[in-house]
Amino acid sequence: MSDKDGSLLMEMILDYAGWLKSLETQKGSTAHLRHIRILRDFSVYVIHRGLNWDEMFTFKTLERFQKESGYKGVSGVLTALSDYLLGRGKIDQPFHLSKPGPSLPDVYGQYLLYHTESLESSPGLLRRIRRVLGPFNEYLGKQGLPLTKLKIEHCDAFLATFKVSDYSRKLYRSSLRGFLKYLYHEKGILKRDLAPLLVGPPQFAQRRLPKFLRPGQVKKLFASLKFSTPTEIRTYAMVHLASSLGLRPAEISKISLDDISFQQGELTLRERKGGDLITLPLPENTIKAIALYVSKGRPPSTSRRVFLIHHFPYRPVGPNNVVGSIREAMKQAGLPSSAYWLRHTYAQNLLLTGSSIYEVKEMLGHQNIQCTHRYLHIDVRLMRRALFHEEL
Fold first, then answer.
1. Order of strands, edge to edge, in the sheet holding 260-261?
2. Quick check: 223 and 213 in contact, CB under 8 A?
3. pTM value?
4. Is the pLDDT of residue 113 over 90?
5. Which domains, and CATH codes, for the chain?
């Protein structure tokens, strides 16, 4: 390790520790002390072993440090440090602390890079794709099959090797289908697009119609919401976004402070499913709910994401956190429903106000009009009005 690397590490950790101390002193908490202690011991560990900057923040170093120190949860501590340094512009990219998967040929790596840079896929989705591509590469190797000779029969035979549920098999099939599209459209490796041919067996009586809340239930839900804790204020804002804009839990979790214009009363969705950027008007009550959370409930953080987890080190929420918060609010209101019911209720209200199926499609962010057709099954009267402009 160069003296420069060691000095840089200590400087960053001291800067972060100072910020943590000031933050937690204001809150009267001591949660930061454990983080500072782990980072102090980690810095001594990497300096003593002479590790350079590229070797410090790897899964291998993390694993060895945890084993020798006996600390648990080191990954979370280093990830929080990474988020802080990234937010302050002190590093260009986050630390790579996840366990590396098996090495894959270049075209597989290029596909994962394509997902990361062009599609901005989440780490969870990338892990799911890798779980399929790794075994797929091994399968083709055992069969002596190059990608250029790939046929749909080989793909079907590969998926048949998985002893998983129908739902998991559907996810695996989707991941492989995306790779096949890439090989054909982006790389020209396949002479034919095999993706449309990779389909599962027909499923009958599986289609479920969207469920929604009646007006009285919506009033009951909002009447039951509380504001005594930061978490309750956060839930209040989430419920407003789901009901007034029909946002998906993933979309709510990704909203940034930079996406909201309180003056104009607008929300810009930059990470919507399908990749289309859209600016939506924010109802006054929804603006007030978000403003209340930002001013009274949101803990201080370098992250620009609006909604944060309310325990140290205050990282952004994920889609599951949004689902859980709204589900708990529904439960407290005595409503046997889920977060997606609010999205369906939003679609129902659009239809009631006379919006066409194409307008509903755009507002919900559907890529395919067939997805929007499902919402027309909510009410036969609404379906006939939307499709045939017919009043009953």
1. 260-261, 266-269, 278-281
2. no
3. 0.61
4. no
5. 3-87 (no CATH), 106-197 (1.10.150.130), 215-388 (1.10.443.10)
